[in-house]
Design a protein that fits this description.
Elements lengths: L13 E3 L5 E3 L3 H21 L4 H21 L14 H15 L9 E2 L4 H24 L6 H25 L4 E2 L6
Antiparallel strand pairs: 1-2, 3-4
Helix pairs in contact: 1-2, 1-4, 3-5, 4-5
Length: about 180
């Protein structure tokens, strides 16, 4: 018999964690790993719009780390919870990429708005989803065990995505869209 994508076990609004525990689909843990999955999908769009191979390879590596992170969050904390496979070197890699890109960018003197080019906008969308994932994981960590490196990684990843958005615009020759406050 072929594998079926539908199981019908979630039809009543519950899903299973790795380990078998069932939770409502709106449980904070489900929201957290679902948002990490959403972020991973946006990073696919980001990767598809990148001009430089170095950043494309890094984003694909980030996607793999997020997949592992999601699996960790999708596990029953009362049973075996796999490590999110994040290392301090993953955070250092993000920081190195931020510093590399930031070194050629003009200083940020204004608030900027998402936009100007789809590649820039996708980076900003991914950044916003990353921040939401971070908020959900922080909330989850208040009630259940979550490896502290997860929050740190998501925080640095959102910084990376902000700088990547600026860098993409710079590489493409797209001027930044500056925030215009009301003057009246």
């Amino acid at each position: 018999m072929a594998f079926r994508i539908y199981t019908k076990t979630g039809d009543a609004g519950e899903t299973s964690l790795f380990g078998g525990r069932r939770l409502p689909k709106d449980h904070l843990r489900i929201e957290a790993y679902g948002t990490v999955d959403e972020l991973n999908s946006f990073l696919g769009l980001v990767s598809d719009g990148l001009e430089e191979e170095t950043n494309r390879v890094l984003v694909r590596q980030i996607q793999s780390r997020l997949f592992d992170l999601g699996a960790s969050l999708a596990s029953d904390p009362e049973k075996f919870t796999p490590s999110p496979s994040l290392r301090e070197s993953d955070i250092a890699s993000l920081e190195e990429a931020i510093d590399r890109m930031d070194a050629i960018l003009p200083p940020l003197k204004n608030f900027i708005l998402p936009g100007g080019h789809f590649a820039v906008s996708y980076c900003h969308l991914a950044r916003c989803v990353c921040r939401r994932a971070e908020r959900l994981v922080v909330a989850l960590a208040r009630t259940e065990p979550v490896d502290e490196i997860v929050v740190k990684y998501l925080n640095r990843l959102s910084d990376f995505l902000f700088v990547l958005a600026r860098y993409q615009g710079h590489v493409l020759g797209i001027p930044e869209v500056l925030w215009q406050g009301r003057t009246d």
